[in-house]
Amino acid sequence: MRVAVQGDGPLAGRIADALRRAGLVVVAPEDAEALVEVRAIGRLRLGDAVVDLSTGLAFVGGKRLRLTRLEWALLAELHRAGEAGRDRMELIRAVWGLGFDPGTNIVAVHVARLRARIGRGAIECVEGRYRLMRGNGGGADAL
């Protein structure tokens, strides 16, 4: 199959390399049978933490932080939600892939662990909706 990778930055290059290693032919978009579009999700400053969702790197106080797959998925989903945030069931569907309420405190536990790792003020819960903090005092600012 002939595929094209459209996008800027190192992530697009890494995806093209991975497709080549998988045996696919990477070509220009006009010659492709399929197109892979790469868009950077964003780089956020969350208080003392800097999180780059497109490269998978996170730093707190200048030290690299290794986040779990679920922590990355939770951060990405909250970033996509913007100011509106996500309620518990929306997060369960998007992050855990469940279409039902498991009857546990799985979201609260993972949010608490993530807050402990990247900073207590990074994620807030207002009226049952979780969101990344915006504005002064540890907000989520796009870099």
Structural class: alpha+beta
Low-confidence stretches: 135-139
* Quaternary structure of the protein: single chain
The number of strands is 11
| Topology as a string of helices (H) and strands (E) | EHEEEEEEHEHHEEE
CATH superfamily of the largest domain: Winged helix-like DNA-binding domain superfamily/Winged helix DNA-binding domain
Q: Within the largest sheet, what's the order of strands?
A: 7-6-5-4-11
Which descriptor suits the 3D outline?
globular
Topology-level CATH name of the largest domain = Arc Repressor Mutant, subunit A
Q: Biggest sheet, in brief?
A: 5 strands, antiparallel
Top-tier CATH class of the largest domain: Mainly Alpha
Number of domains: 2
Strand content: 25-35%
Whole-number average pLDDT? 82
The radius of gyration computed from the alpha-carbon positions, rounded to a whole number of angstroms, is 18 Å
* Termini gap: 37 Å
How many helix segments? 4
- The second-level CATH architecture of the largest domain is Orthogonal Bundle
Keywords: DNA-binding
Protein name: Winged helix-turn-helix domain-containing protein
Pfam family, one: Trans_reg_C
InterPro entries: OmpR/PhoB-type_DNA-bd (IPR001867), Sig_transdc_resp-reg_C-effctor (IPR016032), WH-like_DNA-bd_sf (IPR036388)
Report on the architecture of this protein.
The chain is an alpha+beta fold. It has two domains: 2-37, no CATH class; 43-142, Winged helix-like DNA-binding domain superfamily/Winged helix DNA-binding domain (Arc Repressor Mutant, subunit A, Orthogonal Bundle), CATH 1.10.10.10. The protein has helices at residues 10-21, 69-81, 88-96, 106-118; strands spanning 2-6, 25-26, 34-37, 43-46, 49-52, 57-60, 63-64, 86-87, 123-126, 129-132, 140-142. Strands 7-6-5-4-11 form a five-stranded antiparallel β-sheet, with no helix packed on it. The chain has a three-stranded parallel β-sheet with strand order 2-1-3, with helices on one face. A three-stranded antiparallel β-sheet has the order 8-10-9. β1, α1 and β2 form a beta-alpha-beta unit. α2 (69-81) crosses α3. The chain is globular, with a radius of gyration of 18 Å. It starts with a strand and ends with a strand. The model is unreliable at 135-139 (pLDDT under 50).
